[in-house]
Amino acid sequence: MNIKIEYINITSIDSVLNILNRVIQHMLNNNIDQWDEIYPNRTIIEKDIKSNHAYGIFVDNQLTGYFAINDCQENEYNQINWQYITGKHLVIHRLFIDPEYQGKGLAKKILSFTEKYGRSNKYSSIRLDAFVNNKSALALYEKNMFKLRGQVVFRKGTFNCYEKKIHS
After folding, report:
1. Torsions phi, psi of 15, nearest 5?
2. 3-state class (DSSP) for residue 8
3. Which end of the chain has fewer CB within 10 Å, C or N?
4. ω before 99 within 30° of 0 (cis)?
5. How far is residue 78's CA from residue 75's CA, in Å, rounded to a whole number?
C-alpha cells in the first residue's frame, strides 16, 4: 500500500465531494448526525483548495481522504481554556476518510503529517474539534496524545476541543 499526502487542486473537488457524501452516509448509518449539506459543502471545500489549505491522502494514487489545515480558529474556540497560549496554533478542519479505507491507519498518518508540518512551520500546538457522538474520532485523537481542553456548541451539537503541543 503506497500512501502519500499532498495538496489537492480544484480538479479533485468532485472526488472529494463523492468521498464526503459516502462519509456522511456512513456516519448517519452509525447514528452520527454530524455533517450535512450545509457543512461541509462544496463552497467550503473550494475555499480550502483556493487558499492552499486542502490536502488529500492517497492510497496507490487513489484519493481516499481529505483534510484542511490552517491557523483559522472558530470564534467558539475563544471560550476554551487552551493550555498553550503563545505562538501560532495549527488547526485541523474537515478530516475524513472514505469508509472503505477507514480503520487502516490513514487518519493517524494525517495526524503525523500535520505534526511534522506544524513543527517545520514553527507552530506551537495543534488544535481541533470533534463531535461528541463520533466515538472513533474521539478515540483517535486521545490515542494520539491530544488533550481535551473543553467543549463548544456548533449547529449540530457539542464538540470536544483538543490540543497537542508540538513546539517549545
Report:
1. -65, -45
2. coil
3. C
4. no
5. 6
SS3 state of residue 104:
coil
Average pLDDT over residues 124-147: 97
**CATH superfamily of domain region 3-165:** Gcn5-related N-acetyltransferase (GNAT) (3.40.630.30)
Locate cell 457539542: which residue? 158
Strand partners, 56: 6, 66
Residue ranges per structural domain of the chain: 3-165
pLDDT of 167 strictly over 80: no
pLDDT of residue 62: 97
What's the whole-model pTM score?
0.96
Q: Which amino acid is at 147?
A: K
Residue 28: partners with Cβ closer than 8 Å, 6 or more residues away:
none
Q: Which long-range contacts (CB under 8 A, 24 or more apart) does 9-13 make?
A: 9/49, 10/46, 10/49, 10/50, 12/49, 12/56, 12/63, 13/42, 13/45, 13/46, 13/49
Please report which residue ranges of 30-77 form alpha helices under DSSP H: 42-50
